[in-house]
Specification:
Blueprint: E1 2-8, H1 11-25, E2 31-33, E3 40-48, H2 51-65, E4 71-81, E5 89-94, H3 98-113, E6 125-131, H4 137-147, E7 151-157, E8 159-166, E9 173-181
Antiparallel strand pairs: 1-3, 1-8, 2-6, 4-5, 4-7, 5-6, 8-9
Helix pairs in contact: 2-3
Length: about 190
């Protein structure tokens, strides 16, 4: 199973992002637009893991997250990975605060329990498009000018979701495996 932990995006923010998704869709020959139902903030990508690894990751993460508190995240602007000139990914930024950092660290610690190495750094974002072929700097400049200062909204983060990523020819489908309530009670 191909698994990652993340935060589902509130419907109100998804609605606001639809203008950006629509503009990206106009360049569908160069950009694969993320389906609105797939929008999320990735905390930790685990890759292909066994059912036993998954269960251990889930239990460890559930225990860690039960000690945290819900928090608010603001989503604003856009950016590009690795850079605007060499863009491969277009994203909307999620405000990085200590609460989000703590949630990321809980995911990292749970992943290390199943021998998944830590990421070098965390940059909270929502991927909205993936560049299929070279996109001209002119196109990226246009998106940046139009959306850089945009505030997409705020959302209350009350849980973390563990997703399975099923790869298909028309893009991945994310299936929710577990939803863990932040500050919630442990099962069992």
């Amino acid at each position: 199973m191909r698994v990652f932990s993340g935060i589902r995006i509130a419907d109100s923010i998804t609605e606001q992002l639809k203008e950006l998704l629509s503009d990206l869709q106009e360049h569908k020959d160069r950009i694969r637009v993320v389906h609105p139902e797939n929008l999320h903030i990735t905390l930790k990508f685990l890759g292909d893991i066994t059912k036993d690894m998954y269960l251990q990751f889930y239990r460890t993460l559930q225990n860690s997250v039960s000690k945290l508190s819900p928090f608010t995240v603001e989503v604003k602007g856009i950016g590009f990975f690795p850079s605007k000139k060499r863009a491969r990914v277009v994203w909307a930024a999620a405000e990085e605060g200590m609460s989000l950092e703590n949630l990321y660290r809980a995911s990292e610690a749970a992943a290390q329990e199943i021998n998944i190495p830590p990421d070098k750094k965390f940059h909270a974002h929502i991927t909205v498009g993936r560049i299929k072929t070279t996109a001209t700097p002119k196109i990226m400049d246009m998106f940046e000018k139009k959306f850089q200062g945009r505030i997409w909204g705020k959302m209350l983060v009350e849980n973390i979701t563990i997703f399975e990523s099923v790869l298909r020819s028309d893009g991945p489908v994310y299936r929710e495996l577990e939803t863990i309530i932040i500050g919630g009670m442990k099962n069992g």
